[in-house]
């Protein structure tokens, strides 16, 4: 039931997490879910310092939660202080069965006593078993235009359905990228932009992908079956990033292909590249 779901926002208690918290609050209202603001204090701190930091962190969490309780309703917003490795504690909280979504900022988490070797966001994306939203843009409004990367895998299906639920009023644009195999051979040494054989092969691939898209969407809601489609040559991450700027999209959604224990070691290259370079919010669906 939607009211039993939780949206968890990982907050580092600085302004860098403002957009994530604003977006989490908007989505909690959209889904009718509970909002949980989570901060983790490094458990490697000396005891007296840990007590001081924990007290300050608890006060700050309550300060952040207070206006949201007034907005979303008393009992709909929780502040949760954890102790341990920050990214592991956040993942542990997000992997609870009632968590619908984890919202994080794109910054590196620089908790006292621990400096992450690498991106906090990438570690979360590798290890979380729930959908993760990487919030980059100010949440001044609900998401209005969403690009969904479609490669016809179960992961991209999950991304599409999740994006549709999280952005019920948004325009959905389906994006499929492809590569022309043996491009140089097909072009026969001519200018690829003018070679008839190459253009014919691209048209063939686009027809084939269009037919696959029809099958992929056959059992989807009408809103998704009728969504605009973009089929273009290029790498998926680069294509989605360029289109996000051109289409003025505020959300990109992709699936995470690695699952289970493997996901802790690997993150699909498209999701990983977008986590670094996407010009808008990014949803990685599990």
UniProtKB/TrEMBL annotation:
Domain UspA: residue ranges: 5-136, 145-286
Entries under Pfam families matching the protein: Usp (PF00582)
Family membership: Belongs to the universal stress protein A family.
Listed name of the protein: Nucleotide-binding universal stress protein, UspA family
Protein species of origin: Meinhardsimonia xiamenensis
């Amino acid at each position: 039931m939607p009211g039993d779901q939780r949206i968890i926002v990982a907050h580092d208690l600085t302004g860098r997490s403002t957009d994530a918290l604003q977006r989490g609050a908007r989505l909690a209202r959209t889904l009718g879910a509970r909002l949980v603001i989570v901060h983790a204090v490094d458990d490697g701190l000396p005891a007296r310092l840990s007590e001081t930091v924990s007290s300050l962190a608890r006060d700050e969490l309550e300060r952040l939660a207070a206006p949201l309780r007034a907005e979303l309703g008393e009992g709909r917003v929780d502040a949760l202080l954890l102790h341990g490795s920050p990214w592991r504690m956040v993942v542990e909280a997000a992997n609870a069965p009632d968590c619908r979504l984890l919202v994080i900022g794109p910054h590196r988490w620089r908790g006292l006593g621990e400096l992450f070797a690498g991106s906090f966001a990438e570690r979360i994306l590798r290890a979380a078993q729930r959908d993760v939203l990487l919030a980059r843009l100010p949440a001044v409004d609900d998401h209005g235009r969403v690009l969904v990367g479609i490669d016809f895998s179960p992961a991209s299906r999950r991304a599409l359905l999740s994006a549709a639920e999280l952005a019920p009023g948004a325009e959905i644009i389906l994006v499929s990228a492809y590569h022309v195999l043996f491009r140089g051979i097909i072009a026969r040494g001519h200018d690829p932009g003018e070679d008839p054989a190459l253009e014919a092969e691209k048209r063939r691939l686009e027809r084939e992908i269009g037919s696959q898209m029809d099958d992929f969407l056959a059992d989807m809601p009408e809103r998704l079956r009728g969504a605009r489609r973009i089929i273009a040559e290029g790498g998926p991450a680069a294509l989605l990033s360029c289109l996000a700027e051109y289409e003025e999209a505020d959300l990109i959604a992709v699936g995470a292909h690695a699952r289970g224990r493997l996901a802790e070691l690997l993150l699909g290259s498209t999701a990983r590249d977008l986590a670094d370079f996407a010009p808008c919010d990014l949803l990685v669906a599990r």
